[in-house]
Amino acid sequence: MPIALSEIETVTYRTVVIGSGCAGLNAADRLSDLGEKSLCVLTDGINRGTSRNAGSDKQTYYKLSLAGDKPDSVREMADSLISEGVNGDTALCEAAASAQCFFRLVQLGVGFPTNEYGEFVGYRTDHDTRGRATSAGPLTSKKMTEALEREVRRKNVPILDGWTAFRLLTHENRVAGVLAYSEKEGKLKLLLTAHVILATGGPALIYEASVFPESQQGMTGMAALAGARMSNLHQWQYGLASVAFRWNVSGSYQQVLPRYVSVDADGTEHEFLIDAFSDDPMEGVRLSFLKGYQWPFDVRKADASSKIDLLVQAENLKGRRVFLDFRRNPSPLKDDLANLDGEAGEYLRKTGAMQGTPFKRLMWMNEPAVKLYRAHGIDLEKEMLEIRVCAQHHNGGVAVDRNWLTSIPGLYAAGEAAGTFGAYRPGGSALNATQVGSMRAAAHIAFESKLQPTKDPEPLLTQAEEALRGLAFGGDPEETGALFRREMSRCGAHIRDLSSLRELDRQLRKTLESAEAPLEELPSDLEARVRLRDQLVTQRAVISAMLAAAEVYGSTGAGLVSDGKGGHLAHREPGKNLVLYTQMEGGEFVTEAEPARPVPEGEQWFETVWKKYRERTGEDGDDCDQR
Ligand SMILES: Cc1cc2nc3c(=O)[nH]c(=O)nc-3n(C[C@H](O)[C@H](O)[C@H](O)COP(=O)(O)OP(=O)(O)OC[C@H]3O[C@@H](n4cnc5c(N)ncnc54)[C@H](O)[C@@H]3O)c2cc1C
Known about the structure:
The chain is α/β, with parallel strands linked by helices. It contains 21 helices and 23 strands. β14 (259-263) and β15 (269-270) form a beta hairpin. The longest helix has 28 residues, at 526-553.
């Protein structure tokens, strides 16, 4: 046995939650409430991850409408959550439990605003018809993690902080252990367990151009390597974001009409939107205004507002950096905005934002937006803001059923690690999904699972030894990772170049194979190596799904497939709603399309539901609100 394994510490918990974002902390809180005593949260950093560190203008939470005179229903909300590739049962669960989860957060002190009558007045977000969105401000998800962490600590749930899980171990066809490493302690830990809730967030580490916080990397490849089925890995959300300080440049940052500028290696500036819209230079200005509320890249808008994203990427591919300049108006726009017509003109006139420069308009409309950049050392009054088209959210992930159970017994996935979305999702539904998925996984473990941890660690120790293979990368793992991230952003983000993706996949496989050797001792850069392996494995799985998606749909959702001749493939409707499932078979990823599970139909009788509920939970349910 290698040196490291002779010293490995082994601990046992019936349930291990991996991750301390909105999903992980909620899973632990719910499990504790439901009486799970043998439980821990394992996190690579309690303050790391997307929930704790990301935000936006008005970070949105999406739930059933709870104000006003417009009717809403669970079924209608489920329908809004369904787009290409979404299963009806998980959509129904996310809709059904949205109000329950939202009120729980309110109860824990997250400050979602009410009017003087107690109504949670909402607003409309993208792909929403009912004004279901609400917000606790720019840092809604951070506030959620703080409230949930307080609860988890108050209930004395053990938090193993600073431990990176890097391998899921299985035994007798179910999950049985987690192998983790602490860089600080230079030690491995083996957690023997019967249930794992994977709440490791989105696999942010696969892209260079990213608005995920730097502390979020994810560990999706770990589930794929364990044999879990993945769904819709090709579906992502990309949009324009600043790079020095990672923040989406949506909302007022676009509506004040900044000048778009690209800069050559020799410092020459190009107002590239003017060249692109030479027939009507004001068209570029109008479309950039629409980016304010049509932020995510959308293939359906490739000839409308999403054309701006394509033009930004085209400048980057020429080796130019792209900036928003708030100091000067776009050249076609008159300083008194007299030639600004249509929606943009009407909006700026109505909001009184007719000042002579984008910066002055931004100060008028949204001064905190200016202060935010100042707080991060960027003065929009004096300097230009570098932007790119960045990955923001993974709509796909580990495939789950209506209890957020994966294809491996005992292994659940919740939050962004789980793939419950498809081509589109209403803004704010990701945060709702973190709460509903983790709650349902916790309830399933508490009420329906009989699994217990194995008492014999030997078979798992043998697997742990095996897990330390495949990390013998030559060269600097950070540099190798950066190289493949750059390539993925170039050919496998919102524009997908199939021949480059196939070549990238060959390179990824070669690099992974080159690392296939046993480790005799723990290298000092083990953390970087396990991250690199996860990145490369995840990239291979995502590429497999992207190639399959191009065959099934042509261009899809957030991914425009280039035809290799300067154009792109049109979207094809396959005639039914399909989910693309990716799974490792014989060392290779295989992606197959299956019809999506429909929204469950049929009349529900209270008495029947009540009987089944009592059977499932084993009690009358007078103090349990979450099954
Ligand atoms: C800029 C931006 C704006 C957004 N705005 C919105 C919005 O307005 N509305 C909305 O609904 N969604 C929004 N999202 C998406 C939403 O914030 C995320 O989907 C959500 O916060 C993810 O929560 P999570 O708990 O699943 O994962 P995270 O919050 O990312 O947590 C993952 C956790 O796992 C830990 N972890 C990861 N790997 C390991 C490992 N191997 N071992 C141990 N621990 C590990 C991390 O440290 C972290 O604690 C936005 C995202 C971004 C980037």
